[in-house]
Amino acid sequence: MRDEPRPVEDETVKWAMSDVAPMSDEAFARGRAALLERIDAEESGKVVPLRRRRRIPLVAAAAAMVVIAGAALLVPSLTSRDSGPNVAVADVLNKAAGLTGDAKLQPGQYLYVLENARWSMKDYQYDWMYLQDQKLQRWIPADRRGKWFYKITNVGGRQWLIGSDEDLPTDFQSPIEAEGEYASEGGPALHDKIKANFRDPSPEYLATLPLNPRELYQKLVGEVSGNEGAVFLQMVSQGLDSGVYPAEVRSAVYKALTYLPKLEIADSASVIDGRTGTALGVTENEMTEQIVINPSTGEYLGSRTVLAKDAWGLKQGQVIGTSSVTTKVVAGAGQTS
Question: Is-contact 42 69, C-beta < 8 A?
Answer without folding.
Answer: no
